[in-house]
Amino acid sequence: SAGRLMSYRYRRYTAVRVLLVEDHASDCALIEIALRSAGRRFELSVADRPSAAEAHLASHEADVVLLDLNLPDASGIQALDRLQSFAADKPVVVLTGLDDDELAVVALQRGASDYLVKDGLNGSLLARSLIYAIERCRIEQQLGEAQRIAHVGSWEWTIADDALSCSRELHRIYDSPAGGFPTTLAGLLAPVHPDD
């Protein structure tokens, strides 16, 4: 439809607002160069720590956050958790010097949209990751709104580590705080009578 095409054109030629949370000036410069080479328009803002990112987001918009995990006031998964405590509605792409598959999986499980390693990063890969993160976040928000309207929640069980995650709407339906719902399948099934 014409409306959809116009929307796509608008997004394609409107600058993507990126908040980079990074404390090393040399890495900031490399990210800026990579984004310039990507063939899209990006507006880059930089915060050198999560507390500065929080202050920035209080008065400025960002479409996506690019987060280093080695920062002065938070490191590792703590940096991601800290950022999400005040920017839960923003897609976050983790960008780090650590090529650690286990850390990457944990970051994704904790809400990161992607995990990129600085070594070998290029503009095309970075731009694609940022755009995909924004679109995934938009789709997840639309799904959440549809669930809220339909009064339907969802849950997902990861068999490998018996982890259970629930949608916000499921928490709302059962009037449980985020984190108050069972986190394992056994916990979910505990109140069910064995004969049911």
Task: Please explain how this structure is put together.
There is one protein chain. The protein has 196 residues and is α/β, with parallel strands linked by helices. It contains 8 helices and 9 strands. The chain has helices at residues 2-13, 25-36, 50-59, 77-86, 101-109, 123-150, 168-173, 185-189; strands spanning 16-21, 42-47, 64-67, 70-71, 74-75, 92-96, 114-117, 155-158, 163-166. The protein has a 5-stranded parallel beta sheet, sandwiched between helices. Helix 2 (25-36) crosses helix 6 (123-150) and helix 3 packs parallel to helix 4 (77-86). It is elongated. The model is unreliable at 1-10 (pLDDT under 50).
Describe how the helices and strands are arranged:
Blueprint lengths: L1 H12 L2 E6 L3 H12 L5 E6 L2 H10 L4 E4 L2 E2 L2 E2 L1 H10 L5 E5 L4 H9 L4 E4 L5 H28 L4 E4 L4 E4 L1 H6 L11 H5 L7
Parallel strand pairs: 1-2, 1-3, 3-6, 6-7
Antiparallel strand pairs: 4-5, 8-9
Distance between the termini: 49 Å
Gross morphology is elongated
Main sheet: strands, sense, barrel = 5 strands, parallel
Number of helices: 8
Proportion of residues in extended strands: 15-25%
Helix content: 40-55%
Average pLDDT score: 85
Helix/strand order: HEHEHEEEHEHEHEEHH
Uncertain ranges: 1-10
Q: Which strand order spans the largest sheet, edge to edge or round the barrel? A: 2-1-3-6-7
Number of DSSP E strands: 9
Q: How many whole angstroms does the radius of gyration measure?
A: 19 Å
SS class: alpha/beta
